[in-house]
Design a protein that fits this description.
Rossmann fold, disordered N terminus, 2 domains, alpha/beta
Length: 240
């Protein structure tokens, strides 16, 4: 096997091992994650990809059980949505995620089955991947508390139709989510693989439909919506 071939990295795969594909633009990240996972015989790294669309192609070809995607891969949110639609049984795990409520929700709503925070230790990787594969997600206390606050706020106050919120397109709703996560127009453009001018236009339209003038107001509005992601029964507040 050569690491120069991103399509196939299978080493000693067994029929009972969980098949995994790794997606990252950084070669040593792919190699390091692969080496860690191969230390656990319940995993079999069968492929890798260097960018989002290649990950989609590789997963369609190899039909893995799980896909590990670097949060910094360009157009990663789109790739997660496309993978979710093309391979509903695939569990998508996003790693190197900044552990905030906003960031977690953005990936969850795209279709990720779980996440590995940027603060995770290498020694915890296999256990965390296994937990997500089993339908569980470890979260820090502040993320769990934040999710609970989101649910409480959504129950107490629903967006009024007079705000124009019902007129938001799916892309505009996604833009507001990214605003809430603290991304600038330039960062939104890179994340969604669109031009900066297009991102600015979406932001302007979204703020207008919400009848707000500042990005912070849009972020406050989005937090009143019910979170769309993992059920609370699958979330724990520790990394045991």
């Amino acid at each position: 096997m050569s690491w120069d071939n991103p399509r196939s990295t299978s080493r000693g795969a067994t029929g009972s091992a969980r098949k995994i594909v790794i997606g990252s633009e950084v070669r040593f990240v792919r190699e390091s994650l692969g080496a860690l996972l191969r230390c656990d015989d319940t995993f079999s790294v069968v492929g890798e990809a260097t960018e989002a669309q290649e990950l989609l192609t590789v997963c369609r070809e190899l039909r893995p059980d799980m896909a590990l995607l670097d949060a910094f891969v360009g157009d990663g949110l789109l790739a997660v949505r496309q993978l979710r639609d093309a391979l509903p049984e695939l569990r998508i795990v996003v790693f190197a995620v900044r552990e905030s409520v906003e960031s977690v929700l953005v990936w969850a709503e795209a279709g990720a089955a779980g996440y590995i925070p940027s603060t995770a230790a290498a020694a915890d990787l296999c256990a965390m991947v296994a937990a997500i594969g089993a339908g569980r997600q470890a979260c820090s206390d502040h993320v769990v508390a934040g999710l609970l606050r989101q649910i409480a706020a959504a129950a107490a106050a629903r967006p009024s139709p007079t705000t124009g919120a019902d007129a938001l397109t799916q892309r505009e709703l996604e833009i507001v989510r990214l605003i809430s996560a603290g991304l600038s127009n330039k960062e939104i453009a890179r994340r969604l693989n669109i031009g900066v001018a297009t991102a600015k236009s979406h932001v302007h339209n979204a703020l207008g439909k919400l009848n707000v003038q500042r990005r912070g107001q849009a972020a406050t509005w989005i937090r009143t919506l019910p979170p769309m992601g993992w059920p609370l029964s699958t979330i724990s507040s520790s990394y045991d």
